[in-house]
Amino acid sequence: MSMSTVEPGTRLADRFRLEDRVHESGGATLWKALDEILARPVAVHTFAPDFPRVQEVVTAARLASRLTDPRLTQVFDAADEDGTAYVVSEWVSGDSLLDLLESGPIEPERGAALVAEAAEALAHAHAAGLTHLHLTPGRLVWTSGGTVKLLGLAVDAAILDLSSDEPAREDAEGLGRLLYAALTGHWPGDFDCGLPSAPLDDGRICTPRQVTAGVPGYLDAITCRALLQEPRRGQPPLATPADVAEALAEVPRPAPAPVTTAPPALNLRSEAPDGLGVSTMPPHMPSHMGPQMTMVPPPRPQTGTASKILLTVIVLLVMAAVGVGAWTVGKNLGNTPRGVAQSDSAASPSPSRKPVTVKPVSATGFDPLGSDRAEKPEIAPLAIDGKPSTDWHTDSYSSADLGRLKDGVGLILDMGKPVSVADVVVSLGDAGGSTVQLKVGDAAELSSLKTVAEKKGASGSVTLTPEKATTGQYVLIWFTRLPSYNGQYRGTIYEVTVHSPGSA
Q1: Which pLDDT does position 354 carry in this prediction?
Q2: I want to staple 176 with a disulfide (CB 3.0 to 4.6 A). Which of 94, 226, 348, 483 is the partner?
């Protein structure tokens, strides 16, 4: 049979009857067909007579058919004989990620769960030597049966003539693009996939939290580690699908459609045939399908009789020790001559008050004078994470005085309640030329924050100490001049530590 005669009604391998032409591009045509032996729909790719990569496509399909991960499209047949080449695979019905994003981003953890399933499946494929290289929202499907399917493994790349010197990294970035799309409803890729393009900031793709409110910080960081191949929160880039799968391992997964008639109270789980855990849910996950996922707190530990006896003994011993100590101190004080006691008191200096570290509740970029009133809020927590390798930084400006756009910009800490501020230690990095002010107040408004300390020409570790007692709920590190950075000017804070006066 010549490829030019392929049309609706054509039967391939005396079994697969072509019914509806779904898509045609570049000499490859996708059909919805019927497997007449098993009476089930299948997807069939056929190819024009001059299609140049038939052998590559058939080889890729045969390799993909050896994989058993149910999250990957199953290949049933692939052949190139008698002038006819075709690939027969599973027909998948459901909503693609592109369909789910028609009305905007979906619930963050649901989107992350879909990508997590794809990452695990792709990690198994890479272990077998197969790659995808064309991960788009249209190729990730939430099926009508309540499972995840990743379409086009190996075959898409062969059809489109895609290759990569670093296929693991390319697929990790592809998973990052899918996660970005799920979280924002925008596409950070170079080609049109049916979604609006990701917005840019200084020529760089905005992070998910810059685009969409409510994106959890850890998902924002995972996306950037995969998509941008950058370290975030002290963690390295995600360079392989296995890395992405591991990073998303703790995301709650949507449960599959129930396949048992057991009463719901039994809360049974079904296992994937190959043990890969597609439909296996953690014990704390509900058994219903959908985006709403709740966590059940772990059971409270039980205290046995032996533990109660031991606790009672310990309490009695402590009480006895306190009583003996008090009696000893009282006796010594009573036997001390008054003159000696008064002399020791006059000669001994009063103990110094040691400052104590107060942990902020949150941190955010503070830009009340800017047009968008935000300054890298998505990375602000990195300045209080206790890791000197991570940082918050301002946008880049054309001059040290913030391009004459505004008087200042900074990082504001919410202490959770009014605290007494003894000093604030700020790690600014090695670049000199910063002018930073310490402002403290009881409201996150510039007019309510009073300047209590300032350092000019600052760099490295800087201690900002108020001249008099200062109390407030909000602590602001305010840049009025910025150090140079890559031909422009940018303020950087690696870590901030707030100290309160300690007790004597």
Answers
A1: 73
A2: 226
